[in-house]
Amino acid sequence: MKSPSVLLVVAKTNLARVAQVLAFRQGGFPSVVKILLAGTIMFTLAARGQDDPTEIPKIHPLHAELPPTFWEMHSHAILLVTLLLAAVVATVIWFWTRPQPAVITPPEVQARTALAALPILLAEGDRLSRISHIVRRYIQQAFDLPRTELNTTEFCQLIATQAQVGPQLAAALAEFMRESDRRKFSRSTATAAEVNPVTQALALIEQSEARRAELRAQAAAAPKPTA
Q: Is residue 165 exposed (0-12), middle (13-18) or buried (19+ Cβ within 10 Å)?
C-alpha cells in the first residue's frame, strides 16, 4: 500500500496525461467536468495499487531460516534410549523364562517322605508291597544300581554282588524283602510281636546311609593319582 503523498503524485501525473488525451481526441481543451472525471478515475486506479513505472519496487526481507526439528536435534539420543530399553526388556524376559535348574531331592529324603505318606487304613498286603517298593527304589538310587523292575529273588542276587552295598547291608535287605513277601502272602494276621515294617524300612535306610558315609570317607582318604 502506497503512502498518501505518493498516491497524490501518481494521481496528478495520470490526470495530466488524461487531459492531454482528451484534448487531443476532441480537438480542443477539455471541460472541467471531464478533467475531474478523469482525475477521479486515475486517482482511484492509483489508490488500488497501480504502480508508477518510475517507482523502484520494494524488496521484501528473506524469511528466517527454519529451525531444526525435534527428531533432527535428538535422533541419536532417542535411538540410544530405545536400544537400551530393548536390551533391558530382553534381559528381563530371558531371566523369567530361562529353564530353572532341577532341584534334586536326595534319595533318603524321598524314601522317608514316601514312607510317612503311606495311608493308615491301607490293607496289610498293599502296605507291605509299597514299603518294599520304596526300599528297593531307594537302594537303586543310593548305590547307583540298575533301575529295572526286579522281583525279590533277582533283587537279592543283585545286591549280593555289589561291593558298594556290602555283605552286611545286603543280608539285612534280603531278609527284609523275604520277610515282607512271606507276610504279604500269608493269610495269618499280624501279631503285636512283629516289628512295624515302616520302622524296619527306616532302620534299613539309616544303615544304608551309614554305609554311604563310609564309602565317601574311603574315597576321600584314598591317594590321588599323580600325573
A: buried
**Long-range Cβ pairs for the range 32-40 (8 Å, 24+):** 39/11, 39/14, 39/15
Q: How far apart are CA 109 and CA 58, in angstroms?
A: 101
Separation of alpha carbons 211 and 217, rounded Å: 10
Rounded-to-integer distance, Cα 44 and Cα 38, Å: 10
Cβ neighbours, 10 Å, residue 133: 13
Q: Are 44 and 20 in contact (CB under 8 A)?
A: no
Contact (Cβ atoms closer than 8 angstroms) between residue 115 and residue 202:
yes
Model pLDDT for residues 2-57, shown as the tens digit of each residue: 455 555 555 556 555 555 555 544 444 455 555 666 566 665 655 555 455 566 66
Closest CA to 174 of 190, 194, 196, 159: 159
Q: Model-level pTM? A: 0.56
| Distance between CA atoms of residues 190 and 146, nearest Å | 33
Identity of residue 99? P
Contact 148, 174 (CB under 8 A): no
